[in-house]
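Forum: Protein Structure Q&A
Topic: Joint prediction for protein chains with partners

I've read a bunch of threads here and the consensus seems to be that you should model interacting components together rather than docking separate models afterwards. I'd like to see that in practice. Below is the full input, 477 residues plus whatever partners are listed. Could one of the regulars post the assembled result?
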Amino acid sequence: MKKYSLILLVLIMGTSVFAQKFVTKSGHIRFYSETPMETIEANNKQVNSAYDHENGAFVFKVLMKSFEFEKALMQEHFNENYVESDDFPNSFFKGKIVNNEDIDLNKMGEVPVKVIGQLTLHGMTMDVEADGIMDIQENMISASSKIIIEPKEYDIKIPGAVVKNIAEEIEVFINVDLKKLSK
Amino acid sequence: MKRLVLLFLGLVFSVSITFAQDDLMDIFGEEETIDYTSATFKTTRLTLGYSVENPVKNDMIFLISHHFGNINGGAYEFFGLDQATIRLGLEYGITDRLTVGYGRSSFNKTYDGYLKYKAFRQSSGAKIMPVTMSLIAGTSINTLKWENPDQENYFSSRMTYLFQVLVAKKFNKNLSLQVMPSMVHKNLVASSQDKNDIFTIGAGGRYKFTKRTSINLEYHYVIPNQIDSYEYTNSLTVGFDIETGGHVFQLFFTNSVPINTTDFLTQTTDKWENGDIYFGFNISRIFSFGGKKH
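Posted by a regular:
Agreed with the consensus. Here's the joint model:
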């Protein structure tokens, strides 16, 4: 009995001592669509992201209206016609790092990681997986990845008139500098 | 007892795994940002008149407006399509709030120019502003040949001025309404009973029934006892907007022949109830110069 109490105590202590969360509110997501007709690029530099080293949880929250385009009209169409930001203001990703045990916070340098989880965009949730790199630094982790999103999978309809202007597969580049949460 | 502890441990563990990702999401909190309303209307015209929208900095809009002849002209006039009144216009965004515009109308061979300034932007979230408000100051110059070239004529007699306040609210993604009190100042009027300053009050709106199409309505009421020398009517237009990428097509039926704002507000003389209705359209095309750099 005493033994178990001790384990319990250690576990509780352990979670509080080693709870290592990393957070940013200024992550960068860039997406890119290229067709012979038009190249469309947008940047969002206010991406929320957090990583919990204890259990490998890795999440993103992205305000869709924060994507900035080269042309104001593209931005208006993106929000009004495609992702419908009034109805679906945020996109979410909730996932886990599969090889979380490979990440040693005391060992500086790059670690290849695999992430699986659910991406919610335009009100639709899909399972996604991605390969990325986590660069472990002093009190900080730089994480980067690239994923491909197909608008039609998320029920984003592209009308015939502009179907040649928007790529079927959109490249999404993710770059977040997560800072250690001090408590 | 052992079992109890094990059960407890198991419970703690499973709960922490299930909710770990959701808990982590809570770290971001509910930080409020300023959410500016965009796309109250599809373009810078409601139908005939101005909307609160404006081109952003370095964007230019080319606008072609056309009103055909009266529909009740019958088959002989091909239901009005044999005749047309036209205006060609350009609008340019000097800043994201200030627009300069220019146009030439065939009605009275009129040139017009205006400045439009967006004073308030509707927003929600951290900063609440219930409406968008734009101010317009413009002038138009009638360049018809003098009716009496023998008498002394002044260039200033050709000038008409426009002052307009546009207040619009986007109630939801489909419904936007606008009120627009206006004053038209005419330097020269036909009789001493006619007022030089003519006040009107207008209202209109749009209802989107698909993502890219809407029904628009616009009405301007001329306050009575200002115009005496001719039978004026109030301008009423029912329109239909179609947006296709960089173009907006606006199709409408109206009782106003003139397209230029100072003229359609005060020189509309036809009546809907008599069937003196004109089919018309606007085509607007947006051009971007020097987009934002990141």
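The first helix of chain A runs from residue 2 to 18.
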